[in-house]
Amino acid sequence: MRSPKHLGCAISMEDLPEALLGEIIKRLPMTSDLNSISLVSKRLYTVEAELRDTIYVGCGVSPVTLALASQCSRFRNLCKVEFNYSGWTPNHGMQLDNQDLRVFSSCCPSLMDLTLSFCSYIDDFGLGFLACFKKLISLSVEWLEHLGKNGSLEELVVENCEKIDQFGPLAFGSGWMKLQKFEFRDCYLPLTFKFDGPSHMAGNQSRYDFCCDCLKDLTLARITTEAEIGLCCLLRKCKALENLSLYYALGVHDNDMIMLAQNNRNLRSISLMLTPQHCEGYVYRTSLTDDSLKALALSCPMLQSIELTFFGCVPEYPEIGFTQKGLVMLIQSCPIRDLTLGGADNFNDKGMKALSCAQFLESLKLVRCIAITNAGMRHLARSPSLINLTLELCDGLTDRGVAEVGRARKLESLTIGKCSRISLEAVQGAAKTVHYTDDCPGYREWVNCCVYGPDYPAL
């Protein structure tokens, strides 16, 4: 009869619980060790394949397409893949190319983190296949530099990329020359990020030495900048900008907007979402003031669409850097056709009277403009061109205010969202098309911003 000691030795890997096997595998960080242990038994081979979520592909893996198909077939839960062709020569065989990236996108559905280093056979056409990775949230910064060398890209959107901060796109270099649209949203840089001061710029001036004269559409969302640093520089470099959107771009000041306005006379659309911050010492307000509005009014005769939304402000001035006088000046100076005001607590019935004189205003959206009353609606009824009106969270308005506008018989569409004192009965017949709801996107966005702050990812 065998002793207990002999019985213990007879236990094989096949007899171990799967959870224990998983713990053993997780404690082996080296790829060579993982490859070796997978040869010990068929069960270990299977468990290791299920747990492996990262692979590295370097020089010498050829043909790449077959290798990728094989690896993805075995490791079905890959979340992170790195391609690094540093030191590559033709003797190593073919690199990853556009076709390989297309194949890769179809067989690795769980990919979240992709690093492409020294991948010189992928161009902007191949980059389009990245859209097929539905879960991708991180892309290596080095890719932007290599993509920029091609210099043929016309549109670049960087969104939810955890490893790309606002300095990464500056390495795009000559790629900016033909770029017409650029969006940078919700990437690595947190709102609490602090720069090391002017020393951060030392030795890095070359990264700002690029031309973006073709850029027409620019969106910057949730970045924190300082003077002369980061993507803020685009506002001073653009010469042909037509559409600008700044969503909580903290650190953008009047000087940036003034220079942008003076350099871009063809600006047609501007969308600003602002929240108070410390400006000029202990003053707590939005960083842009009437000086920005004045520059737009004087230098942008083509401006037709304006959105100004304020979050985190209270009715007391000066948390909103724009005054009603400044807003009216801009509206009266430019051929505004589409206007959205959100959280503009300092905009009241007197401002509405000025709006009623805007000759070109066709569409107006008011969200949480609490100082506007029925008297403001009475002024608006005389607006010569207004045909589309949206009111959300405007609790200073009642059925009487809607009736004032409805009697003018000019509106083609009227949208009412969560205005507590306006009833469904009152809006019937006030326009050719009426939309009435107890909920509205503006309300959800306002609640999310109040609870989570302006870095809430629901733009």
Automatic annotation (TrEMBL):
Coiled-coil regions listed: none
Position of the signal peptide: none
Domain F-box: residue ranges: 10-59
Tree of life domain: Eukaryota
InterPro entries cross-referenced by the UniProt entry: F-box_dom, Leu-rich_rpt_Cys-con_subtyp, LRR_dom_sf
PANTHER family reported for this sequence: F-BOX DOMAIN CONTAINING PROTEIN, PARTNER OF PAIRED, ISOFORM B-RELATED
Protein's name according to its UniProt entry: F-box domain-containing protein
Organism field: Urochloa decumbens
